Structure formats: C-alpha cells, structure tokens
Amino acid sequence: MKKIIIFLFLLNSFVLGIDLIKEDKKNKDLKEENYYNIGNILTLNKKTNEYKRVLQIKDLLNKYMFDFNLLQNDNSIIILNKLKNNFNNMKLKENVNKNYFGIVQKDTLTYFNRQQIRENNDSIKKQIVPILSMGTKIIHLLKLKDRKIKIEDGKKYNVFCGEMESDSCITAKNIEKLYEVNFNYITINDLKLEKKIKDKFLKDEYFRNKKLFELLNKKNIDIYIKVVEAPYIYFEEKQDFLNIDILELEPNFDMEEIYENTTIEKEYSWLQRKVHLYSVKSTLVTILSNEKYNPIIRNVIRILYNNKTYLIKEIDTNWKNVDFDYMKYSNMLKIAKKEINLNKVKD
C-alpha cells in the first residue's frame, strides 16, 4: 500500500487557526489527547455518498492529528439552517456550538440564499461560503418508455421527488421555474400508503424505488426526479428498467448558471443511448470566513489535494469523480480559491 506523504510542517500553521475551536480534552470522540478537533461537519445520512466521503476525510485527517465530528441530517436545507444559526450565535457570542462545516448541494445553497433574502432580507453569501467541490450528482428524470414527455413551456406533470425540502425537490423547483413548466408535486402522504408499507417506503430505498416504478407504470406519476451520483446502485437492475427510461433535458442557458452540462450512457446497462442531462456539485461550505481561520481552510485543502491519488487507489475509486479544481461559486472563500490555484499549478 502506498504510504501517505504527511507534510509535518502543516501542523504548526494549522494549530494557529484553531485556538477558538480547540476540542476539550475530555471529549470522547478524540482518539488521543493531542488530537485537535475542528468542530462538526454536517452531512446527509449514512446511505449517501456524501456521508461515506466525509468518513474517509475524517480517517485521512486523523493521520495528521486532526479530527472532527460527523453529524447526519435529512437534507441540505436543514444543514444550512443550522450553519446560519451558529453563524449568528458566534456574532452574538452566545449558545455557540461546533457546527462550522457542511456538505450541501450547490443549487440548494443558491435556493436557500434567495429564500433568506425574500423572507428575512438577509443574504447568507457572506455567512456560509463554499470551500471545495466534493462530488457531482446527476439529475435523473425517470418516465415510462412509451410516454412522450417534454420539459417545455406550459406543460403540466405529476412529479415525485421526495419531501418538499429534499435536495431532489429543490432541483425540481428550479427546473420548473427555469423551463417554465408546471409540476404538481406528489408527496408521500398523497400516495395514501398503509402504515406498514409507508414505514418500509421511508426506510428501504430499494423498496421505495420499486414502488415508484409501479406508480410510473400505473401513470399515477409522470416523472420521478432523483438527484444522485451515477451510477446509482438502486437504478442498476436491468429488470426494473424494461419499461422505464431517462428523460432528456434540453440545453437551457439559465440552468447553466447553477448546473453543469453532462451526458450519461455507459453508467447504466439498460441505457441504450447517450442522454443530455445536467449535474450539480456537492459542496463543502463553512461559516469560518474570518481570516484568522485561514490556516484551517488552507490545510484541509492541501491535505485533500496531496492525497487525491491515495484516496482513489487505496480508499474508494469514486474519488476520481471529485473535482477539487471546480470553482464556479460566486461567493467562494478567497483563501480557498488561492489554495486551489496553487495546487493546480503544482499538478
């Protein structure tokens, strides 16, 4: 196994920036007394690639004598609300917790900012700032093969995308707005499932997808929208897709302000053609935008960059799909941009 190259000189500069969030020695999460805890990273649940990826980052940072706590959440909106609340608490210097970082979907970050401006006249662009891209998720729109559906002006469709504040539904709302279509959102409650079935629907992802494919076949829903990295394990069973197809999204300039053009073809054995879709970045964000925290941000980026090959070869080949060089964020932290550019030059 290839050894990780550990740059010991990083330790001193990193410690300079964590005086305000140095972990209490009594904290049971620390493996040794001389580990430094940089706070909490809020991420999605255990079934997601985001959660698995953050666990791998935790193991990597441990080799540099740093640690953090990993907290699960149901969606990016919940994560952003927690970060915003802690940012405000830090300003007031009361009820401060350790929620300093989060992994959120880029479009949800944009949506949340618009929501805060509309409801509270309060932009979060200077409060919650992107640091690093942490993966690419594909917008899957599933429909019946024999249904002629086109996302265009004035069309009306019954759509299932999960809970209304889920990341997939935030994406669906953006598609609805930017393509000027009308989506009627079918929720879990609208499905009127028996309690036992409903519980299984919520807990068992494979069962949930089977049930949704049934609803597509019965034409109870027109489109099932799922935003997830491809290939998605629950979409790989060829037998399930005998009558199901992916709906293509036509190019749209407004979409390209948030999303990236992409195509999929070989990701799924049942897909017999190349399909144009859009993708969205999972993003590591922080509320530690004050310059005194720059050593933390700088060294997290350096550690990840310096160990990208190790992560791909020794930990998980899916790290090859993580683009650390991606910087299309309007409010990206300056020190993060600077460090990414420096590491790009080294490569």
Biggest pleated-sheet summary: 10 strands, mixed
Any guess at the CATH architecture of the largest domain? Answer: 3-Layer(aba) Sandwich
Average pLDDT rating: 87
Number of domain units: 2
The outline comes out as: globular
- In CATH, the topology of the largest domain is named D-Maltodextrin-Binding Protein, domain 2
User: Any idea what the radius of gyration is?
Assistant: 21 Å
Structural class: alpha/beta
The amount of beta strand, in percent, is 15-25%
Regions with little confidence, pLDDT below 50 for 5+ residues: 1-32
> CATH superfamily of the largest domain, called what?
Periplasmic binding protein-like II
Instruction: For the record, give the distance between the C-alpha atoms at the N and C termini, rounded to a whole number.
Output: 22 Å
CATH class of the largest domain: Alpha Beta
Please, could you describe this protein's structure?
The chain has 347 residues and is of the alpha/beta class. It has 2 domains: 10-135 and 285-346, Periplasmic binding protein-like II (D-Maltodextrin-Binding Protein, domain 2); 137-281, Periplasmic binding protein-like II (D-Maltodextrin-Binding Protein, domain 2, 3-Layer(aba) Sandwich), CATH 3.40.190.10. Helix content is 35%, strand content 21%. The protein has 10 helices and 10 strands. It has helices at residues 10-16, 49-62, 76-92, 106-120, 167-178, 195-203, 205-217, 294-306, 308-315, 334-346; strands at 36-43, 66-72, 99-105, 129-144, 156-160, 182-185, 223-228, 244-246, 260-264, 275-286. Strands 1, 2, 3, 4, 5, 6, 7, 8, 9 and 10 form a 10-stranded mixed beta sheet that branches. Helix 1 packs antiparallel against helix 8 (294-306), helix 6 (195-203) crosses helix 7 (205-217) and helix 8 (294-306) packs parallel to helix 10 (334-346). Mean pLDDT is 87; it is low at 1-32.
